[in-house]
Amino acid sequence: MAERMVGKQAPDFTMEAVLADKSFGKVSLEEIKGQDKWTVLFFYPMDFTFVCPTEITAMSDRYDEFEDLDAEVIGVSTDTIHTHLAWINTDRTQNGLGELKYPLAADTNHKVAKDYGVLIEEEGIALRGLFIIDPEGELKYQTVFDNNIGRDVDETLRVLQALQTGGLCPANWRPGQATL
User: Fold this and answer.
1) For a 10 Å CB count at each end of the chain, is N or C smaller?
2) What DSSP character marks residue 9?
3) Would the CA dihedral through 9, 11, 16, 20 be positive or negative?
4) Are 131 and 10 spatial neighbours (Cβ–Cβ below 8 Å)?
5) Kind and range of the H or E element at 129?
6) How much of the chain is helix, strand and coil, in % rounded to 5?
7) Among 118, 108, 25, 37, CA closest to 70
8) Residues with Cβ < 8 Å from 93, sequence gap 6 or more?
9) Which of 25, 26, 59, 54 is nearest to 42 (CA)?
C-alpha cells in the first residue's frame, strides 16, 4: 500500500549533479533548507528522449521566476552525470538541452526515486514526478504521472505561489487573487 508523503518531512537526499555552470558537484535538500528556500524537485525518465527536453528546457527558460520565489529547481533521472553533461552540451536543435540554469542530478543507485515513490524498478527509470518542498523540509505538493506527458511550468509556478500565500486558494486561483 502506498504511504502518504504530503504533509510529512520530505525524504532527504544528496546526489551528484551537473550544475548550471556545467561543473560536477552535489545537490542536497539539507543545503537548500539551510538557505531557507523552497525546493522544486522533478524526476524525468531518461536523457536523450523526446518529451523530457521540452519540459527541462521550459523549466530552465522560466528559472528566473522560480528564483524570484526563493525556490531552487532540481531535475533528476537515473542517468549518470556524464550522460547529463553530454545532453546539456547537445544543442536544443539536436534534441539536446543546451544551457540550463539549474542542476540535473544523477540518481544512479535509484534510492531517491524509490524514496519519492517514482521508480519503475523493472526498467530502472523514474516516472514523471514533481515535488514541492517548503524551506523547513515539509513536502507540500506532489504529482506523478505517465511518462508520455510533459509538465506545465505555468501550473508548477501557480502551485508554488499558492503554497507561499499560506492561505486557502480556491479552484482556478491565480497569483494576485484573494485567498479564502
Assistant:
1) N
2) B
3) negative
4) yes
5) strand 128-133
6) 30, 25, 45
7) 37
8) none
9) 59
For the chain, how long is the longest CA-to-CA vector? 48
**129-163 residue pLDDT tens:** 999 999 999 999 999 999 999 999 999 999 999 99
- 169 is known as an active-site residue: no
**Cα 4 to chain centroid, rounded:** 19
- Per the CB < 8 A criterion, the answer to whether 76 and 45 are in contact is no
Q: Give me the mean pLDDT over the 20-47 stretch.
A: 98
φ, ψ of residue 128 to 5 degrees: the values are -80, 100
- Name the residue with cell 524526476: 43
Q: Tell me the whole-structure pTM to 2 decimals.
A: 0.96
Q: Which of 17, 52, 73, 132 is catalytic?
A: 52
State the DSSP H helix or E strand holding residue 173, giving kind and residue range, or none if neither: none
CA 76 to chain centre: 7
How many residues in the chain? 180
Q: How confident is the model at residue 98 (pLDDT cuts 50, 70, 90)?
A: very high
Output 25-29 pairs: Cβ under 8 A, ≥24 positions apart. Answer: 25/103, 27/74, 27/103, 27/105, 29/133, 29/137
